[in-house]
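Hi R.,

As promised on Friday, here is the backbone we talked about, encoded as structure tokens. Could you run it through your design pipeline when you get a chance and send me back a sequence?
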């Protein structure tokens, strides 16, 4: 997959795709339905399959002080899109000038002249341009005028419930990763570089790989059964484990929440490597114990329960 970040500097090789357009936070089943249509059209017209998205997320750009809401960082989104067979990722840098383009100017300058799209696919609720003034129907009208095709995809429902990033956030907030998985079509993952923690886990017999969740929506704090993909380094591969998502109340107050994953039956150094941690099942809430011995006893029980779930 090739990545383009500036619509004003696009090589001939990267122009002319059939692309789905949107933020694709979570790349859930609704997003995948839109992406499937773009990929099918790419095969039909002999064009690369593409995604047009933005980084930072426009919501982050306009409200930087708002609580974190993203289900995925840019790295995790790119990995998921690549797994879906996307050939061109137009991850456009979202800035003031781009935000001020009218719907017509966006269609003309970005999609037509900049990326040279041959076809665009959007959801029925798609909005674009300054003040979100443009609709999917407007894009179809611009496409007809400017020479690129447009497909408007219907919204997807599962079990009578509309699939949305909002509904997925709610499921994660309530400690229901299985429900989130059904809407996502894949396990919810937190990805990033392993950072150095306080190394207490090693002393407790449970060494962990720590990931920051800064900028991401925080699922319910507690202990999870997880599947871990080590993406880089000599230990790259798939592992099972147990993870604590929280603020570590046994060890002081004011700690920023992070994700500490213990990989079962693993020996090695993961500092600086990139991990993808999938939340499979919620085991219990985060707790503060009376002693380290009580904490270790509970960690033993958590690990046993996680192994049962993942077996």
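Update: got your reply. Pasting your designed sequence below so it's all in one thread:
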């Amino acid at each position: 997959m090739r990545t383009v970040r500036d619509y004003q500097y696009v090589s001939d090789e990267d122009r002319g795709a059939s692309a789905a357009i949107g933020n694709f936070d979570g790349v859930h089943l609704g997003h995948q339905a839109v992406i499937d249509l773009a990929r099918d059209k790419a095969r039909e017209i002999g064009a690369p399959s593409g995604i047009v998205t933005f980084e930072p997320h426009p919501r982050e750009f306009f409200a930087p002080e708002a609580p974190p809401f993203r289900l995925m960082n840019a790295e995790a989104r790119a990995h998921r899109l690549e797994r879906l067979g996307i050939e061109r990722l137009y991850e456009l840098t979202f800035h003031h000038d781009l935000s001020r383009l009218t719907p017509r100017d966006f269609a003309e300058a970005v999609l037509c002249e900049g990326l040279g799209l041959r076809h665009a696919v959007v959801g029925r609720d798609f909005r674009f341009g300054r003040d979100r003034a443009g609709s999917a129907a407007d894009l179809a009208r611009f496409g007809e005028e400017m020479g690129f095709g447009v497909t408007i995809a219907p919204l997807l429902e599962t079990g009578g419930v509309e699939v949305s990033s909002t509904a997925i956030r709610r499921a994660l907030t309530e400690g229901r990763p299985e429900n989130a998985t059904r809407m996502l079509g894949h396990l919810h993952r937190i990805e990033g570089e392993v950072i150095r923690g306080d190394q207490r886990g090693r002393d407790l017999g449970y060494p962990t790989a720590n990931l920051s969740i800064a900028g991401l929506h925080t699922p319910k704090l507690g202990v999870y059964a997880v599947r871990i993909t080590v993406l880089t380094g000599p230990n790259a591969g798939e592992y099972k484990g147990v993870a604590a998502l929280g603020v570590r109340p046994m060890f002081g107050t004011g700690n920023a929440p992070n994700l500490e994953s213990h990989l079962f039956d693993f020996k090695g150094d993961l500092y600086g490597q990139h991990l993808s941690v999938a939340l499979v099942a919620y085991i219990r809430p985060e707790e503060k114990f009376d002693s380290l011995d009580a904490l270790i006893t509970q960690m033993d029980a958590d690990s046993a329960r996680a192994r049962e779930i993942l077996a």
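One thing I noticed while checking it: The chain has a mean pLDDT of 93.

Thanks again,
M.
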